[in-house]
Design brief:
This protein is mainly alpha-helical and about 110 residues long. The chain is built from 7 helices and no strands.
Amino acid sequence: MRETEKQRFAVLIQALGATFRTEVSAAMAEGYWLGLSDIPLSKVQQAVQLAIRESRFMPTPAELRSYVGAPRARQPEYYRRWVGPSTDEARRIAATWEEGNVRGLIESLAREKS
């Protein structure tokens, strides 16, 4: 989002708070801005609409991101330490790890090293 869209963004977050009977302070609105400012305002609006329709409680910025398929704000620690943030190998290792297939991961890495 652009700084010029911040006022419209604030209206969306206030509407979200009102719907879930949550007072949105300036600090809270700023936190939502920090968590969502890297995605387009149209996607934030979609996320707010979905949250109003489907959530039982005030969603966090991370939950709003997930409603519109926005990328995770950061990668898991093991992902960054092991291989690096942007390689195909890192994605494969992280996916294998998250699936719980640690033995398969170790075997795969052993084959690649030989």
